[in-house]
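To: structure subgroup
Subject: Chain for Friday's discussion

All,

I'm putting the inputs and outputs inline so they're searchable in the archive.
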Amino acid sequence: MNLKTILLGCALSTGLVSAVHADEPLKVGFVYVGPVGDGGWTYAHDQGRLAMQKELGDKVKSTFVENVPESSDAERVIRQLAADGNKLIFTTSFGFMNPTLKVAKAFPNTYFEHATGYKMAKNVGIYQARSWEGAYMLGVLAGKMTKSNILGFVGSYPVPEVVRNINAYTLGAQSVNPKIKTKVIWVSSWYDPARERQAAETMIAQGADVLAQNTDSPAVVQTAEEKGVYAFGWDSDMAKYGPKAELTASTLDWSKYYTMEVKKVLDGTWKPENTLWGIKEGLVVLKPLNPIVPADVAELFKEKEKEISEGKLVPFTGPVVNQAGKIVVPAGKPMPMDELMSMNFYVKGVEGSIPK
């Protein structure tokens, strides 16, 4: 009879089963909207999960479900993870917000964290990146590298998160090049390489020579490589798909955050919080510049990144002007956080309209 069997027998005879459970690994579940191999958003989250698992070792047993639609299927998947004994569940896409809250009510002793949402509960926290800081920095580089003064942006869904990034990209570019115009094509999907490629090709045909995206595949970078224009990696580094095209990438490193939150559950200090990290905290990470970027532009880029990290440069500090020419943020004032998080307008210089 081994020691574990002896301890289990003692626990059963004395009712101290919880002491045995304390030695079992904490089960942590992740719900992904795309495939772990998407090369973008889901890949970045899964790299964070793997880093957390590696650091915490046998204290944790993590699992994930990929390709979960933002529909009733999400509720079913989240509910099953909770029923399977996962004590902490991360749901990593905007459309998982309401399903997460619904399941959380049925499992009050399970902790949930939802990425990019805005609704909380006693056992539901929210977390997201100040991804607009990265988008602003990509814009700075685009504004310096464009020859046509026309930028392209492939959008996924017209939620505030994506609208913010389009606007930040445009404002960053206009900060160094007032002539900038930004074209946007929406593909109504987070991950659809064929549509992303088609959107990129269309904007290139319309004169855009630097492309950005808020979609999850490397199709935009691949298309830019083939067509001889510039692009940026988004959420993950996509340079291997376009070594000549990718100028840099605004990536997300979730490892520190996921490790921190799991540790809180392990030591009994977890509570629902609204966490918003960016460049300063090391969640938004800008990859080294492509050597084709001129030295003076690289120096400017480095300076502005440092200013954002130190809080000296805050994207969406006024004057911010909308398409109609109305000042929505006065000069010298930062946009209030509630307005920033619910953004539903284009800034001046972005062409077209936001889909309803």
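Points worth raising on Friday:
The longest strand covers residues 246-252.
The chain has a mean pLDDT of 94.

D.
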